[in-house]
Design goal:
By secondary structure, the chain is of the alpha/beta class. The protein has one domain: Ribonuclease H-like superfamily/Ribonuclease H (Nucleotidyltransferase, domain 5), CATH 3.30.420.10. The protein has eight helices and five strands, in the order αββαβααββαααα. It has a five-stranded mixed β-sheet with strand order 3-2-1-4-5. β1 and β2 form a beta hairpin. α2 packs across α6 and α3 crosses α4. The protein is elongated. It starts with 9 loop residues before the first helix and ends in a 22-residue tail after the last helix. The mean pLDDT is 95.
Length: 213
Amino acid sequence: MASKPIPTFQEEEALQHRGYHLIAGIDEAGRGALAGPVVAAAVMLPADYKAPWLSRVRDSKLLSPGQREILYREIRAASLSTGVGVIAPDIIDAQNILKATRLAMEAAVAALRPVPQWLLIDYLRLPAIKLPQTGIPHGDTLCLSIACASIVAKVTRDHLMVELDTAYPGYSLSRHKGYGTRIHLECLHRLGPCPIHRRTFQPVRACRRPDET
């Protein structure tokens, strides 16, 4: 099996050579979940930044929870600015997940200070934002700024899901973070959907709460 590529600063360095030094990487977490918000993060690292921990940065899906937590703290401490956008399940249902993901990314970018000069985005482009930008397929595995954003988005969302587990007990949200695991599906079929489930997503759409007729 081929090894996964290691994220690099190649994209950022090419932009720096063109005179752009405030570069934000953007990614999301929770797009495929059945419950909870979609969360986006934007991370702007200093130009020519170097630190030993950067060699450990990967797409968040390739890291353990413990590794993500450590890197999350390093990224937050080192970044020029970090922005987060959170879009709730009801908006996901009303707008669709693609539009909601863009809204989360737009909110994350709007939270950055100073304003970035260029955006590097995992896959997507953001037409509503009038800044130069590049959508990079598999950006979270190739581009360090985007990989950092993927970690911040994932850890932020995981923390939110742990809080929501307290608000909506019985669904084991702190374990599966809203994704369609066997345990989550068993809880969903036994209890029906709760207010943070995405009603337009299958299999949530096919389920009813026991008190619903």
